[in-house]
Amino acid sequence: MSGSDVPSHNLFVYGSILEPAAAAVILDRPADTVPALLHGYHKYKLKGRPYPCIVPFESGKVNGKVITGVSDAELNKFDVIEGNEYERVTVEVVRMDNSEKMKVETYVWVNKDDPSMYGEWDYEEWRMIHADKFVEMFREVLEWNKNPNGKTREDIVKSLKKKMSSSDQSSSHNVFVYGSFQEPAVVGLILECTPVIVSAQLHGFHRYRLKGRLHPCIAPLETGVIDGKVLTGLTDAQLENLDMIEGDEYMRKTVEVLLTDTSDNMQVEAFIWANKDDPDMYGEWDFEEWKRLHMEKFIEASEKFIEWKKNPDGRSREEFAKFVEEDPPFGGKKMATSEQSPSYNVFVYGSFQEPAVVSLILEFTPVIVSAQLHGFHLYRLKGRLHPCIAPFESGLVNGKVLTGLTEAQLKNLDMIQGAEYVRKTVEVVLTETSEKMEVEALIWANKDDPDMYGEWDFEEWKRLHMDKFIEASKKFIEWKKNPDGKTREEFEKFVHEDPPVAVETGGNERTGANSILKGVCFLGRYNRSRERTMILLKERFQEPPVVNLILECDPVTISAQLQGYHLYRLKGRLHPCISPSENGLINGKILTGLTDAQLENLDMIEGDEYVRKTVEVVLTETSEKMQVETFVWANKDDPHLYGEWDFEEWKKVHMEKFIEASKKFIEWKKNPDGRSREEFVKFVEEDLTAA
Q1: Annotated active-site residue in 19, 183, 246, 606
Q2: Tens of pLDDT along 176-229?
Q3: Which domains does the chain have, with CATH numbers?
């Protein structure tokens, strides 16, 4: 290596050269890099260009990498790539790996007041769309630098700009898409390639839902704006594929869109709904909802299309077009119109709002529409995880309508819900359109049931219980396929009794922590003959992973308040204690239906510094009072009590260690290894409450 090639420069990069393949093309070797942060600059997008620039900005910071050990010759190559719109300057960066400051060189935009600068450049977006082309362009620039072949720098720059702003010349169509073709996995299958995709907006149109269909349409609307994508550089054959998929209910037209990144206008083609006055158009189609509920089936349909393209099996284009129209979920035929189509619309408000549950029970994913039911209230049920609805004059229930169910699917719902519900016809208001719709709904038979209270929370249910409900739904499907001699009545009994579907927190033949309490309540109710209820207020046992490990079950929990006590910190310990305080108030949870064995587990964990007492709490949902047990600090004058313990802080900082300690407790229970209860209590005190 000559003297001039001795590595002597460190170069901070922040844009396209972050891409390892791009840096390697320039250096002719893999780059040695360290992550770094540059303060006092901002990384802007440039209108009409895919690459970024940086300029001074007092409160700004730019994430990037430092390429270390760059030789003079290599640095010259970077100068050639960057051109005269950038100037190379020396700046100071902070290394992200060791926080050390480092003097480096970087390229700063010459015109710091350039009106083309806007927003913030996104490396990941650039990488997905442009990385491969940049690698090729860098290679061409460096080849030109070695052998100009009569071309000036201006010639090569012009050529590069043309390449950056256009696709392969063999491709000639740019198409604006706004529905399922925004998803790369779908469009990649249909086109058999992944085109360069650019975000764009189409003004003067609205994206509608279509009754009975999963796909959207667009139609003119003066004040409308549609966010979508432009598929660039499509061939005639690829455009023909899109024509075939869309069918004759759409017309392909030329429209003008606004590119999101650059604010440039662009002439593109788009598929417009032919019947702009179609009464089936309503609301606004939701791409994220479609992805969550239907994308997998659309991908399967796309794969069928590709199979047909490779092996038509004697079917003409017209016959395949008919297949596309008729085969769910890809085609355009309305659901719920033919004799073989589903015919029931059902309003759901509990676990069946969750697509993963309903699709298992029904063995397909219906079209789901948001709706409101007036004149009813969504109640909790004491001792159960599922809700009920009952008439309530000023009530309002938010839920979903499952559309187009068959009679067999409706019977499945009836079987799951059982005789405590009655199916009635009610009128709901569709959230998207404010239209009224006659649907069926399952109403709680006993409208005066004293077990109804408060308001059921769908998000809480999802967080705490959804996984177990999905398991229960799978068991239902297994039984449907192989009843194994069980009648419908026997299966209903199974649903009531078998974990994780039901909770039985009592009975005359309790077996402790390994009893049926291990489940969650799906249809069952409490048998309170030997039920214990206790509260553990504002402590680690509010966190489900901890309590589930200690109790070896997932108990039903109820929010409550304990008045006349304060939640203290303990010097040198991670856990809290409670002690009487005249004006005190503690928010916590009630763990319901614990067995003697489970309560003994808690006694063992808490140790003799706590005393278990009966106290009265107020239920948060109902304001009812309830007698429960709780652990109170034995020494109410303990000088180690101070301040107020913070549950959220404990979760963030210490919860994982408590979960590990809980696992050790379970291991000890299964295999004491000669240790007495007293020895284990010492272990718990040392391991859980260490400072």
Answers
A1: 246
A2: 999 999 998 888 888 888 788 899 999 999 999 888 788 899 999 999 999 999
A3: 3-145 (3.10.490.10), 173-304 (3.10.490.10), 344-465 (3.10.490.10), 531-688 (3.10.490.10)
